[in-house]
Amino acid sequence: MRASVRRSIQALLDGTDMVTMLAGAVSGAVAGYTYYPATFDADLRLAATGAVALGGTFLFTTVADALLAPLRRRFAQADVADMRAAAEARVAEARGVAVPSGLSEALDQVAAAAEDDAAQRAAQAAYRIDLSNQLLNNSGRWRGYTSGEASYYLAPGMVLHYSREESERGIAEPRYTLLTADDPTPVPVTNVRDILDDLAPRARKTAEALDAVAPSTV
Fold first, then answer.
1. CB-CB neighbours of 169 under 10 Å
2. Given a cut of 80, is residue 84 above it in pLDDT?
3. Residue 68: what pLDDT?
4. What DSSP string describes 123-169?
5. For 172, how many CA atoms within 13 A lie in the half-sphere containing its CB?
6. Is residue 136 a contact partner of residue 160, using CB atoms and an 8 Å limit?
7. C-alpha distances out from residue 105 to 93, 102, 147, Å
8. C or N: which end of the chain has fewer Cβ atoms within 10 Å?
9. How far is CA 71 from CA 1, 76, 185, in A?
């Protein structure tokens, strides 16, 4: 329900409280004045009428409160939800995160968060294959994807890939594989040494190729 509509209904409920009190007072006064014995003293008759009017007010407001309590409770919960949402929006804005104006913008924000989450997870779990904490734990070097996977550029034609797979116990565990341009088969990586063993021969071949085409010096 829109906030403006809810406020209008709440204002109507507040007006209903006043109408209920007046109706109870008038009904009690009429009943007290009408059914009070005419032979009794006039002053006592006025006092009794006032007492009956107060009783009518109490009775009407009690019944009205009981009938309207579920509706009031619903509006109160909606107000609390609105205040919580407004507070969260202020916190988000203070952190530099713009509050989305629609579903499309919200989707873009969630997608960006999913990519960053994948990159962060890949970097945090990298200690499993690199205890040095000098290279693979840098989340800025990881490129995350909305699928939950991530990639780490190592060298031309060579990428470290991160994903999560269920173990035999049904627990999702990080999995790192080496992908190269000349061989599409993923190579499992369990230690940073595995990357070195693959990278070192490539570096030697590249150096030898450069030496072969370099002009000889006299």
1. 6
2. no
3. 57
4. HHGGGGT-TT-SSTT-GGGEEE-TTS-EEEEEETTEEEEEEEEE-TT
5. 7
6. yes
7. 15, 6, 19
8. C
9. 13, 9, 63
